Amino acid sequence: MATIGALVAVDTPRLRAARHGDRSAPSILFLVSLWAVVAFAILALLALLVTAVVDGISRVDGNLFTHYSSQIFPETGGARAAILGSFWVIGTTAVMAIPLGLAAAVYLEEFANPLRWYNRLIEVNLQNLAAVPAIIYGMLTAGFALAIGMRRGVVLAGGIALALLILPVVIISAREALRAVPAEIRQGSLALGATPLKTVWYQTLPSAIPGIATGTILALSRALGEAAPLLLLGGLVFVTYDPDGLFSGFTTMPIQIYDWAGRSQVEFKTLASAAIIVLLGMLLLMNAIAIVIRNRYQKRW
């Protein structure tokens, strides 16, 4: 049976075409404007990428990965502390955000009554929280750390801020993946005598793992590129040691790039461009993993 959404999706373009026509002046003007905006955005992005590659490719060497940042000899300095700090913070973020977001998604999608007012309130706030600026999560974490007496510029504080940042995205993407699992799978499991919890654990969740993994990896890649909440929390810009725990000081790639790009010496700007190339490589790798998981394990029902 066709749903209301499907009927609207089919009939709306037909009504618009009949009323205005595909070649009317407003339609063509709107289409040209869209193409102009897209072309400008792509050209600006290409200009930034080419500039970063040209300026920094000469510094993408072994020193960049093995040496610490140096204020005296920037020509031999590196981003070792920033790279390791990024791994520590993103790892902490994943440990906190993924289980919590997955549990919330399972409850809201599989067990919550959508007619209850508090469930509807959670739904509305989830959509709004996904659009809140990252700096707000930094302020929230700074207030939380101050309330419990925890130092702000440590790995745990950075992980909490980034976990709060990506938690709405993880919940929304996990719910979409769970929603895509056909109801017949749940009904078949229940008909064979399985409990609702066993149905979720053994049938629904395994079927939704490709969508959940893809959304989670993309959310973590967004967290990897964030600097604003970590700067507010007091993320260090000059670190000459490896982070070794949750309460260790840290810096990350975006913070290090922000510091180097603001200095006047040419060597620091070259170093910043080289770090941008490394950060882009890390982001592209995470997105490639998400695409591979989606294409390899995605099921067509």
Structural overview:
- The chain has 12 helices and no strands.
- Helices cover 74% and strands 0% of the residues.
- The relative contact order is 0.14.
- The model is unreliable at 1-15 (pLDDT under 50).
- The radius of gyration is 24 Å and the shape is globular.
- It is mostly helical and 301 residues long.
Low-confidence stretches: 1-15
Number of strands: 0
Helix content: over 70%
Q: Termini separation (Å)?
A: 17 Å
- Tally of helical segments: 12
Give helix and strand order, one letter per element, not per position. Answer: HHHHHHHHHHHH
Mean pLDDT score: 84
Strand content: under 5%
Radius of gyration of CA atoms, rounded to a whole number: 24 Å
- Helix- and strand-based class? mainly alpha
Produce the secondary structure layout.
Elements (H helix, E strand, L loop, with lengths): L3 H17 L4 H32 L5 H5 L13 H32 L5 H13 L4 H15 L6 H25 L3 H9 L4 H29 L3 H5 L20 H9 L4 H32 L4
List keywords for this structure.
mainly alpha, 12 helices, disordered N terminus
Short description:
The chain is 74% helix and 0% strand. The protein contains 12 helices and no strands.
